Amino acid sequence: MAFGQPRIEYKTNAQMRSMHEAGLVLSRALDAAVAAAAPGRTTKDLDAVFAAVLKDAGATSNFLGYHGFPATICTSVNEEVVHGIPGGRVLQDGDILSIDGGAILNGWHSDSARTVIVGTVDPEDQRLSDVTEAAMWHGIAALATGKFIGDIGNAVDDYVTSVPGKALGILEDYVGHGIGSEMHMAPDVPNYRTNHRGPKIRPGLCLAIEPMLVRGGIETAVLEDDWTVVTTDGKRSCQWEHSVAVHDKGIWVLSAPDGGAAKLAPLGVVPVPIP
Ligand code: MG
Ligand code: MG
Prior knowledge:
The chain is an alpha+beta fold. The protein has one domain (13-267): Alpha-Beta Complex (Creatine Amidinohydrolase). The protein is 28% helix and 23% strand. It has five helices and 14 strands. The strands form four sheets. A five-stranded antiparallel β-sheet has the order 7-6-8-13-14, with helices on both faces. Strands 1-3-4 form a three-stranded antiparallel β-sheet. The chain has a three-stranded antiparallel β-sheet with strand order 2-11-10, with no helix packed on it. Helix 1 (13-36) packs antiparallel against helix 2. The protein starts with 12 loop residues before the first helix and ends in an 11-residue tail after the last helix. The model has no long low-confidence stretch (mean pLDDT 96). It binds magnesium ion (2 copies). One magnesium ion binds next to loops.
């Protein structure tokens, strides 16, 4: 895995503090988009709400125009896994919606995703979202306690497979990534156990950790719009994502207002503000 991978961009503390500023804007924009998600709203409505927060903050979108992507967020509904394009689709009661967005401030990128169920909640969808979110936090905690990038996927995989009840699938077609002066950078961050331990975790490393889980099989396909990824069995899917920094005193979740403190506490990890 170390061979043929582009060089990892290790950030200074000042650069990571700039990424934190971008992450805070992104967090507010996602708050607004999630709050606007309701039956009867279109996915394009949510894109406008998100874009307005970025504009007010003087931030720009790293999604808009990315390889021609036409919006500031990805809205992936039900069997859509990731990369759904906002448009005229009207959200229906009981839809499970993943909203993935990003922000650039002063040249530094942030990337984060949340899932929301609109209207009536199917307990199995809620379980899917809860387990995916918890899997993300287990992966983030592994950045604080682990030695190699591979420890993140191991932690996600171990957690998901330990959850009692009907098994959920971890997608393998899409992975997390390094982030910094660009949105998608080295290294890849698999959400599952592999034979590769990957690069060492060390200060200056910033990663987007983004497990994608499904209620059925993990096989996916891309729709004719060349973007929207769906499960081939039509079963529902879910994504949660945060951008996280490793510095010499600990880790800090860049796209969470509290640095991840509340969600990491039960996992025995105390995030430390970037010095
Ligand atoms: Mg994302
Ligand atoms: Mg990402």
